[in-house]
Design goal:
Oligomer: homodimer
Distance between the termini of chain A: 36 Å
Radius of gyration of chain A: 23 Å
Largest sheet of chain A: 7 strands, antiparallel
Largest interface: A-B, 93 and 94 residues
Chain lengths: ~550, ~550
């Protein structure tokens, strides 16, 4: 029998290790005693144990089995538990606490669109909730089952590349395909998808679209909404199929009705995405250090607005994140570090900037040269290719530190927002003050998706939870942070989406008339309210 | 008293002249005799003369006057006639024929959002149609009054720049502002709007957004949907205000519900648009000639997919358009022309390509160098900066030849579509065969908006109309062209929009479920069906 721990773990071998850098950081910042390090709790080693009657009748289950085959319809505790929650901190915490509030009834693994169409029809006729499910890596509670029902997991059998069109530079896929599987097929033919969210290894094309995601190269290649050419969406009211025009003026763009819809209108089944020529050997890398966050931000803004091309990866770590990176990478107090300090690049102020530019001919080198010129103007010191290359190598792995950190009784969470340049520094300042007001906290902030008109801010924080009050402690702290961000003109999300965790703020942010519009769309596509129902996106 | 001719003329001084090049072309292609050249007809010199009772009561008119002032509410024949039609060929033809089917009742010139809100309320309560009106340059019958009612002309008093935000590179405007007025203000502060449709001088920001327009620099700066950061829209059901986040993941992007909505949901009152740094002195210009259309297209595609940056202006004239340009510019049979022929660039096959690259540092020159390299690979010959510079100088003026050409009894019309690279040549071929099947025709085709995944095709055609059967002749020929384009996988429009002229094809192109979605949105925003009603976008 499986345990709760089996459910919440990534199952990735990298997650077992908490490297010395991280361990020492936690020990020193949180004054962890040996006792605290050893006496871990909430490991979730208990066997899965929840009682919930199935709301779906046997005869309906039989219909699903007739459509997808017996071997693709599950009502086992393990399957139900592993699809009921996503990867938000509170969801992981609940699993550690042995709580599964509203377990799904069934997990179905369809293998083609026709099956999905049939399943949606049956669910609609029987008013059975459906949660579309890809990699399950949502960090917004977007796929948390609220009223039980069916989980439609597309990642197992509905994950094929349908067509690569070399002439059009596009790929059509079944949306359950995982990032690495797509990328491997594309690379073989000399292309890249250009979309590399941190969840890349455990997320699907359908999830990227539903959550309006962004990858680490989004500054160059755009968010997912700039990559989608066409979609097929199966809604309870019918199927929407759009065409892969490079652009058009045929009334409103229907793709945008579903990008960011988080499963509330229908199941996104096929997507035609832009792809790009793949020249990894030509990529230019550049790392800089600035004397202050403000100067780094100003340099970044100037680059984005200058009109000389732009990096694909473009990041700034704020001073605290920079110091932590230096500490963890063993750079602190090296000879180079001492030189930096003498040159005026001081801990607590200095700020790392990373850039990588893709492309052909000498474009990457050309943009890098311009970048260096702009950075220099803002007293940014070029520190070579290596730091950004190192960063890229481990870009997915920090997610896998999550569980070992939680094993020490520590909250680990992220929050991300977008903001115009005008308001970026004040938002950063206010959020920093708020974060640092918590007595024991390690908070890191970076900018990682950059535009002509502003950028995102990405917050990562670690803090020991209050034993016995884990949920309330987190909820209070999280609420305070979101309030500060909204008050300082940040969006509720830049690329994680809203889900259920941020939906209480939607009316204020999206406007009452925006919400009624969502409701009207919901009513149109899903009059029985079966698609991912319950508190999503600020809807009832 | 005004004549019909007063109504349909642009009123631009450039329109009086039909240059020798054009005149000779028409004479030679259509075998026009002196008699035909002199005996012009349908000049529309008759006095405006139409009888239609106002459907709006005096008391309601008085309410409008109370809101906007007596001097901003008109029911004169002249005002009604000049706002009832846009600039589509059939609309101009009808004015020449002295036909105004369904004249508007009133033209109102509001000066602020509050007035617009009040007017929309009154119209909604009294079920009075509203047509939002900017520059009036629609070529799709999108603003043609169908049931009379009120024209809300924003261009007179609702046309101010509200704010230029230099830090964010954005501008907020009242949507009635005309292109040149916006550009002048921006240039003064070192910025450009980057959006230059051919209608630039007679179109407004509101119109650009409502029709999902594109400007000549769209290959670099994007279509209008890529420029809009935030909108205010006044709908009968309430006001939608979006925020100017550089990007976000807050459910679906509400801006996209209104971009391309062509006035059927509400009045777009304010827009926050991206703006760009303005370095006109740095722009690089490049003109090429290719041996065939196919090679030019292949070179263009390679450039767009190569990842070395891209031009802002990027155009190909097909062989017929190239020959006509050479003829009209007096290049034919010059010494240079003879050399070109010897080199294998032959009339009937050779193809012009124009590019202009904007930006700072050496970006324009860098991209130009790459462009040249790619062109050379496809046997494209670089022919200097001058041809594209010349073209840019007169880029708006060909529109003003429209009326003098129609004075000779000649249909002048355009059609534009978008298509993936894969289908571009077959679409071009089929459309060419169709166009050339008309006995007397001058047809020019170009590509002018280019993407990684495809491009637009823009058709311009001139042909003597059948006297006495002008409307039917045009309608038959136009229908045949649209059918060919749709059959060959072109969109109904790349940037003109759908309006009433293309709405009969919408169900096929947009899908029945797409149309029901539009209807659901319409029902939500405008339950009384007052916003630009009557055959718009395929709706009833």
């Amino acid at each position: 029998m499986k345990t709760y721990r089996d459910i919440f773990k990534w199952g990735d071998k990298r997650e077992e290790m908490l490297d010395d850098g991280m361990l020492n950081l936690l020990i020193s910042k949180f004054n962890l005693s040996n006792d605290e390090l050893e006496n871990v709790h909430l490991l979730g080693n208990e066997e899965l144990n929840f009682e919930h009657d199935l709301i779906i009748s046997e005869s309906v289950i039989q219909q699903f089995k007739n459509i997808c085959g017996d071997e693709n319809v599950y009502s086992t505790k393990e399957e139900r538990a592993s699809h009921t929650y996503g990867k938000h901190f509170l969801e992981l915490l609940k699993l550690r606490l042995g709580i599964i509030d509203n377990p799904l009834d069934l997990v179905i693994y369809p293998s083609n669109s026709d099956q999905i169409i049939e399943i949606v029809k049956i669910c609609n006729n029987n008013k059975i909730p459906i949660v579309p499910f890809g990699g399950g890596s949502s960090v917004t509670m977007a796929l948390q089952a609220t009223f039980g029902g069916v989980c439609l997991d597309l990642s197992k059998h509905f994950n094929k590349v349908i067509k690569i069109n070399e002439s059009n530079c596009s790929v059509t896929v079944e949306t359950g395909i995982l990032g690495p599987d797509l990328e491997k097929v594309l690379n073989k033919q000399g292309f890249t998808c250009g979309h590399f969210p941190q969840s890349f290894e455990y997320s699907t094309v359908g999830g990227w679209i539903a959550a309006r995601g962004a990858g680490t190269l989004s500054t160059g290649y755009g968010k997912i909404e700039e990559m989608v050419l066409a979609l097929n969406v199966v809604t309870p009211s019918g199927i929407i199929e759009t065409k892969d025009y490079p652009a058009d003026a045929q009334a409103i763009n229907l793709n945008n009705i579903f990008i960011g819809s988080e499963g509330i209108f229908g199941v996104i089944t096929e997507a035609c995405l832009k792809i790009r020529k793949y020249y990894p050997e030509k990529t230019a890398f550049a790392s800089f250090i600035f004397k202050s966050f403000e100067q780094a931000v100003e340099s970044m803004r100037e680059t984005m607005q200058a009109g000389y091309g732009k990096p694909h990866l473009f990041r700034i770590s704020d001073p605290d994140e920079t110091d932590i990176a230096f500490k963890m990478k063993g750079f602190e107090n090296t000879f180079s570090d001492k030189i930096l300090k003498v040159l005026g690049y001081k801990p607590g102020q200095r700020t790392l900037m990373f850039a990588a530019i893709e492309g052909s001919n000498k474009y990457p080198e050309f943009v890098k040269k311009c970048l260096k010129k702009t950075a220099k103007k803002h007293k940014g010191l070029y520190i070579g290719q290596k730091p950004v290359k190192k960063w890229l190598e481990q870009r997915y792995s920090s997610a896998y530190a999550r569980d070992p950190i939680m094993d020490k009784g520590i909250i680990t969470d992220t929050f991300e927002t977008s903001v115009t340049w005008e308001d970026l520094l004040s938002l950063w300042n206010s959020a920093r003050i708020y974060l640092n007001s918590r007595p024991l906290i390690v908070a890191m902030v970076h900018i990682s998706h950059v535009y002509e008109n502003g950028a995102n801010l990405y917050f990562t924080f670690l803090s020991p939870w209050k034993k016995g009050l884990e949920v309330e402690d987190y909820q209070n702290f999280h609420k305070g942070l979101v309030d500060v961000i909204v008050k300082n003109k940040g969006s509720l999300s830049h690329h994680h989406g809203i889900g259920r965790i941020l939906s209480p703020w939607m009316k204020e942010q999206y406007g009452e008339n925006g919400i009624s519009l969502l409701q009207a769309l919901k009513q149109h596509f899903d009059p029985e309210n079966i698609m991912n129902p319950g508190g999503m996106l600020g809807l009832r």
